[in-house]
Amino acid sequence: MRNKFADALTRPIGRERFLKYTIKAFALTSVTVSAARCGSPAAAAQPGAALEGISLQEYRNFNALAEIFLADAPFEFDAGLAVDRYVYGHPHPIENRALVHELIGIPSSRLLSVLLDGSFTTLVELSPEKRAERLNIWKNSGSKLKRGLYTIMRQTCFFIISSRPEFAAYSGYDLSRGIIPYAGARA
User: Fold this and answer.
1) How far apart are CA 148 and CA 111, in angstroms?
2) Residue 22 and residue 30 in contact, taking contact as beta carbons nearer than 8 Å
3) Is the pTM here over 0.70, yes or no?
4) How many secondary structure helices (H) and strands (E) does the chain include?
5) Are the C-beta atoms of 81 and 47 separated by less than 8 Å?
6) 20, 63, 84, 120: which has the fewest C-beta neighbours closer than 10 Å?
7) CB atoms within 10 A of CB 186
């Protein structure tokens, strides 16, 4: 008779469960960088408005990701402020705010950097070129965990940009009535 623990380790798990436990494990064991040393002024910049629910470190983390994933955006975009406004300023806020905080903590997790990349340098501490290189390695990795984290972070960046008025205007929507597709009424 096989060991129940061994069976649990070999049984496939769904995406939602995988994300939930992986992100919680990294969030619980992460040591965040107290002052992000991002490779560009955009990723290390201060928010233009007061943050409603995410920390300055989380703001910088998300900007560091967006600097790579949204590099070709056709308009100026403050991703850190956008995620704060989406989660805390949206008429129908995301139910699981803790998950957003855990996800945004990934770029500054030293434990994650050590376990996945064998490096004490976090994603946030890397220059944009090195950050893009490391994320590309995750994207093309044989590890489901690396590919999964890459995909989740990339999808989150694209989802957040699609909820912004700048994107809606660029896409050709008439914003004169105050309605922004996927984001409710404009504040």
Assistant:
1) 17
2) no
3) no
4) 10, 2
5) yes
6) 120
7) 11
Q: Which of 137, 133, 132 is nearest to 147 (CA)?
A: 137
Can you tell me the distance from the alpha carbon of 33 to that of 12, in angstroms, rounded to the nearest whole number?
A: 34
* CB-based contacts of 20, cutoff 8 Å, min separation 6: 99
| Cα 48 to Cα 12, 81, 84, 158, distances in angstroms | 44, 8, 12, 21
Residue 85 and residue 123: Cα distance in Å, rounded? 24
Q: Are 24 and 102 in contact (CB under 8 A)?
A: yes
**Residue 108 Cα distances to 16, 34, 68, 89, 121, angstroms:** 23, 9, 15, 24, 9
Q: Hey, what amino acid is at 184?
A: G
